[in-house]
Specification:
- The protein is built from eight helices and no strands.
- The chain has 190 residues and is mostly helical.
- It has one domain.
- The termini are far apart.
């Protein structure tokens, strides 16, 4: 999938996990942290590609992407269960350093980040390339499995751009509309 598709799927999954499972109490700082964490986590598995959206979104990201490029291959460690576990551990440690006076509900932010990262892996599993789920094994896993892999999506082609991306945006808007009463309490102290 392309960065824009990962971005909207990750934001939808991360924000949904927060709105559906976190306590519906006033917490605009938590909601902002959830949105930022979901955005970053949804793009982070592609850190191994110098042209990925995460590098484009960061100041001097192109330079950093080129520096990292010789050391990483696309769809390896960051697209595996091992990478998922490493990310979860690092995210947990980073969140421990958030001061309590910020008023951020750390478990909600961690849940949103982990769900968004996982959404990236699932989305890449439905592409023709698949992912090395059990890295360092180089076997690529995908959904649907053999013998139906012909139904998988080509990254950046018409089906992703004309069907998956617009539907993902529609799901995002529908989710915000459906959870508006909870979202209103979270953002506006009502």
């Amino acid at each position: 999938m392309t960065g824009k598709t990962h971005q909207i799927i990750g934001l939808t999954a991360g924000i949904y996990s927060y709105l559906a499972f976190a306590p519906p109490v006033y917490g605009p700082a938590t909601f902002a942290a959830v949105a930022v964490a979901a955005h970053i986590a949804a793009l982070l598995p592609d850190i191994d590609q110098p042209t990925s959206k995460i590098w484009v979104d960061l100041p001097f990201g192109h330079v950093a992407g080129e520096l990292v490029n010789p050391f990483l291959q696309h769809r390896n460690l960051s697209h595996s269960l091992l990478g998922f576990g490493i990310f979860t551990g690092i995210a947990y440690e980073v969140l421990l350093h958030f001061p309590t006076y910020w008023g951020i509900h750390r478990p909600a932010v961690l849940m949103a980040a982990v769900v968004a990262y996982g959404s990236h892996l699932l989305a890449d599993m439905v592409t023709v390339e698949g992912i090395p789920l059990f890295y360092p094994s180089q076997h690529m896993y995908g959904i649907p499995p053999h013998p139906f892999e012909g139904l998988r999506i080509l990254t950046g082609h018409w089906f992703e751009n004309l069907i998956v991306f617009p539907l993902s945006n529609l799901v995002f808007i529908t989710m915000l509309y459906s959870y508006w009463p909870i979202l209103r309490r979270v953002l506006f102290h009502q």
